[in-house]
Amino acid sequence: MTEQKPPLGDMPKEDFRRHGxxxxxxxxxxxxxxxxxxxxxxxQPGDLVNQLPKSAPDAGEDFAxxxxxxxxxxxxxxxxxxxxxxxxxxxTSTSAVGVFGEMLAAAFDQKAMxxxxxxxxxxxxxxxxxxxxxxxxxxAEFHGIIYDTASVSTLxxxxxxxxxxxxxxxxxxxxxxxxxxxxxxxCSDQTHSSIDKAxxxxxxxxxxxVKIPTNERFEMDAEKLSAAIRDDLSAGFLPFCAVATVGTxxxxxxDDIEKIADICKRNNIFLHVDAAYAGSAMIVPELQFHxxxxxxxxxxxxxxxxxxxxPFDLSVLYVKDLDLLKKTFSLVAEYLKVAETVTNQMDYGxxxxxxxxxxxxxxxxxxxxxxGLIARIRExxxxxxxxxxxxEESENFExxxxxxxxxxxxxxxxxxIEDLDAFNENLMNEINQSGEAYLxxxxxxxxxxxxxxxxxIRARERHLRKVWDLLNE
Amino acid sequence: MTEQKPPLGDMPKEDFRRHGxxxxxxxxxxxxxxxxxxxxxxxQPGDLVNQLPKSAPDAGEDFAxxxxxxxxxxxxxxxxxxxxxxxxxxxTSTSAVGVFGEMLAAAFDQKAMxxxxxxxxxxxxxxxxxxxxxxxxxxAEFHGIIYDTASVSTLxxxxxxxxxxxxxxxxxxxxxxxxxxxxxxxCSDQTHSSIDKAxxxxxxxxxxxVKIPTNERFEMDAEKLSAAIRDDLSAGFLPFCAVATVGTxxxxxxDDIEKIADICKRNNIFLHVDAAYAGSAMIVPELQFHxxxxxxxxxxxxxxxxxxxxPFDLSVLYVKDLDLLKKTFSLVAEYLKVAETVTNQMDYGxxxxxxxxxxxxxxxxxxxxxxGLIARIRExxxxxxxxxxxxEESENFExxxxxxxxxxxxxxxxxxIEDLDAFNENLMNEINQSGEAYLxxxxxxxxxxxxxxxxxIRARERHLRKVWDLLNE
Lengths: 473, 473
Known about the structure:
By secondary structure, the first copy, chain A, is α/β, with parallel strands linked by helices. The first copy, chain A, has two domains: 111-355, Aspartate Aminotransferase, domain 2; 365-472, Aspartate Aminotransferase, domain 1, CATH 3.90.1150. The first copy, chain A, has helices at residues 13-33, 63-74, 96-108, 119-135, 150-164, 169-172, 193-201, 222-234, 257-267, 304-307, 322-329, 358-393, 420-434, 461-472, and strands at 143-147, 183-188, 209-212, 238-245, 270-274, 299-302, 315-319, 397-399, 407-412, 440-444, 447-453. Chain A starts with 12 loop residues before the first helix and ends with a helix. In chain A, 59% of the residues are buried.
């Protein structure tokens, strides 16, 4: 059936309704059959490109034809992040209500720059983020703001720290100035690469980033941080920012925020805490001890799109000094001047417009409730520790890092294997190519380590059992 | 009816299907009844906040209750960007198929960092952007990459320009270096504030940004650009980047790219073209003359979420030197190392993960086709010029800027009114408060100017007639 498409305007209402229902049903089926699809796309590089026309069509196509290509061309090219056996990188997944939030946000198509261009987004966001703050047991002096990714949240945090120096960098910049010393930022050798990207972008240079060694548990050595700052001060450098991590990307190790905060305070250094992954675990009472000292941070980033069942993207930056954030970025062009004394979200970042991202998080917090979310994260931690116990009890495997949250770093170490690195890399590749599960890797003390992350809302004990069986085959 | 919610896992399939259908129907109705809703939210600041609980619920709620609050609380707080009488800022709107794209993208929940984590997004994106490039009549040497907003696209362009200097800024930064002169970026006094934010963030400082005066048509004066560069070179500064705009935010004025490119070439300056708004008009053959010289640019930004019926956010940066972009940002942590020699999207920007944004643009280009999109943009330009003719023919109004695209800058200037600024501001506020239409303003040569933008996929001649009647009442 060829659809009647008007020469102007949008898709007719009845077509929207019909196709919309088809898509909802398709997604419902997708969520159900996902477990039988290969986790990693079996495509080879170029497979999708080679099936696509080289130019856009001149005349419009029936949407039915477009949609059938989603099943035919797109689905085989998708790596199923929601799959219960996606254990690579960090296992993240959306919930159904998260999808509902994105549907409505797309329909409203808000660009929340000024309050008046979206009172809904401007006012829902701080409320929902305050709900989350309470769940995370953070003090009320933290104010949240949503960005797209943790990379961008952290970029804003370090920009704030730079602005706090009061060295007229916003106005005069850093080049061609004899009065500025080398500025220094501190993190550990386990810190996420987004810190490197932020210092590059900010013009501080990779040289400004000091990577403090970690202990045997991959936690920043606070003594060495102290020493590095002392040395830098003696050398005439200017320490101004430190990044502590709760839940590093490689092993989910936990820096001692309390100790680091104390050092920062003594040296007047801005402290940013990267809890992009593990921040969601702060809602679980028995896990809150990992975040001891978080109240002393100047800013904290957490990503509900990682472990709070919210579709990508939604990263939250909590800051104590909202005025400093505004001072770092606010610029109001004439065509954006308004008489109201209201919050205008454009004043708090490099992006002028913002999507209505709080809607999906509001849905998630309300549909599952605080208890429902705690139960799900608690279960993931239980499953990871169960897997850890299997590793520890086996003669053919060994644990390579502590398991504070829901990531297990381990390797196969059967007797009589000489090159364990090659053996484990092959093991990982075989499992990944089988489509049954997706594991990723890291290097720990020079050893090739397998990483198993538990985070899908669909993950059950049988999925962990399946991976364990695959590893033992 | 209280829903049975499992203690773990996601919403049951039948609930997803039922609520999903309800949401689709609600959106279908919303698109239809939108015209009868006030364009600007009638809410007062705090109205939404005051209706929301101060904490998240402990126990999960029925989704039916959550969804009913969308109609009750959220809808009145929404400013309807899709409304055919949204003429403020830039009138932008989503299409139905754009919403479909976001539904599926949310369900797939791709984080396209590595090729293997989303072959679908990694491979569809360059294809769809090449389709758009051809439609825009840009040479094949331009490669597209999607970011969230034009602010971020432009930030990346200027970062590339800085990297191209080969001054080890990525490695050594800019502070504490006696060898670096003041770096200089050029734009016009009509350029978007995102350029200011970019130079602030990059550590170049607002002082590095030279705003070249514009002529009576609000176009950058190329002679003055030449002179400014010459003066800066004499002063020992280092000119390295210029931003030309096609379709400025205030008036949609058009800088002469060809002339500016020639100056940049002679001075070895990176040329970025900001066509965030007007880039979509490049697909219309009779409008392409505005972009003469675009082929000489190093980078061009255009936002399909502005005028190509694609939901926010989707900004495209076209660059000639993709390797330079990679060199500016690429950093590969151990846990992200892969054996394949493939494109990994994380290498091309500050954001590590990327949403599957190309899907919605693919839907838009296929459903409407090249001809359907041209017809819609052409109609908007026709409507804006029709409105312009009414202004010109009226004794009570005057035109304040040329109309190259679909924005009219004008004011009421009836006889016997002393304070025209106050008169026009009141006129605008009255119309905006009526809910019938939304106009915004700017200042042109010291005069308070009304801005009427035509861009909604729903805009028809009767909507423009309505605004004209309101203005004349």
